[in-house]
């Protein structure tokens, strides 16, 4: 019975408009393929990376600032060269991208959790609850995301100490970026709930005596998934960029725990001395990663909005 249900779901998915439009859009297919490849490389970095940047026994300071292997003075052991600590750039990019993706996805999960609770409550109950929650969101939106993230990060470091912050830097950045950008979800979900709660299925659920929490999470929330999915792709890219910016400013990942942002920050001071590869390759990787995520987000937005989609 379960096999038949799964088979019918797979059959419906293959015949869905979503997959039909995806197959017709070459940009979306290419972006998805690149993103899957980058994600797989990040997850498999301990296996496919030539070196382990966390293993100090394999790092030699005499190998520092070696250029890419195809240039003069390059070493074939280090395809993209080495950084100032003698770590292989390719390996640090693979390990660093895993950290950046972990922070990006974790921060979006926290944003989603807060945004769903606030957006559903504001849209469903309305009145004073709506005014209070939305005014709080408006106040936070009046500040830039980076300003909020910098303030929260500075408070965390001053309160918990630099050593504690460095040890739990990934968790701290997830919380910081998550707290900085949840209003985007709250406002989007609230707008959808305001439209959904006037429909007949919500009225029927109320007449049947269902509690508000069940109506909100079991009936209304599933109908909000389209805008949530669209905004999530954009927010993952924004979260990765926020982590890179905070690390570049010295408020993110420590230098000994590579992320794309900390790699760019570390190599920036050496770019004018000729060691351009320390910053250039992590920077290009970051641009490609964010670009393909944004392209997928734009495609999802168009597909879920028939008035915009022309594919």
From TrEMBL:
Pfam families: BPD_transp_1, OppC_N
Topological relation to the membrane, as annotated: Multi-pass membrane protein
Major localization listed first in the record, in broad terms: membrane
Localization per record: Cell membrane
SUPFAM superfamilies membership: MetI-like (SSF161098)
Transmembrane segments: 27-48, 101-127, 139-158, 164-182, 220-241, 276-297
Span of domain ABC transmembrane type-1: 97-297
Keyword Transmembrane helix carried by entry: yes
CDD domains, sorted: TM_PBP2
Keywords linked to the UniProt accession: Cell membrane, Membrane, Transmembrane, Transmembrane helix, Transport
Protein family per UniProt: Belongs to the binding-protein-dependent transport system permease family.
Name this protein carries in UniProt: ABC transporter permease
The species this protein was found in: Oceanisphaera marina
């Amino acid at each position: 019975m379960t096999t038949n249900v799964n088979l019918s779901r797979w059959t419906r998915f293959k015949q869905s408009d979503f997959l039909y439009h995806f197959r017709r859009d070459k940009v979306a297919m290419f972006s998805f393929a690149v993103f899957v490849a980058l994600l797989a490389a990040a997850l498999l970095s301990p296996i496919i990376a030539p070196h382990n940047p966390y293993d100090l026994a394999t790092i030699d300071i005499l190998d520092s600032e070696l250029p890419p292997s195809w240039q003069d003075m390059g070493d074939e052991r280090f395809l993209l060269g080495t950084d100032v600590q003698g770590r292989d750039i390719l390996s640090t990019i693979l390990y660093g991208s895993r950290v950046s993706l972990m922070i990006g996805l974790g921060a979006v999960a926290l944003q989603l959790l807060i945004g769903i609770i606030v957006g559903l409550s504001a849209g469903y109950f309305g009145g004073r609850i709506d005014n209070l929650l939305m005014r709080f969101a408006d106040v936070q939106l009046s500040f830039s995301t980076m300003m909020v993230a910098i303030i929260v990060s500075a408070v965390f470091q001053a309160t918990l100490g630099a050593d504690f912050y460095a040890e739990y830097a990934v968790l701290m950045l997830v919380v910081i970026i998550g707290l900085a950008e949840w209003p985007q979800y709250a406002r989007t979900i609230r707008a959808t709930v305001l439209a959904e709660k006037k429909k007949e299925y919500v009225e029927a659920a109320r007449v049947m005596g269902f509690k508000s929490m069940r109506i909100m999470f079991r009936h209304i929330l599933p109908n909000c998934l389209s805008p949530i999915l669209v905004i999530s792709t954009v927010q993952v890219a924004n979260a990765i960029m926020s982590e890179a910016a905070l690390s570049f400013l010295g408020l993110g990942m420590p230098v000994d725990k590579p992320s794309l942002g900390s790699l760019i920050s570390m190599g920036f001071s050496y770019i004018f001395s000729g060691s351009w590869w320390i910053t250039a390759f992590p920077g290009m990787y970051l641009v490609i990663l964010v670009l393909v995520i944004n392209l997928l987000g734009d495609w999802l937005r168009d597909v879920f909005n028939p008035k915009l989609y022309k594919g």
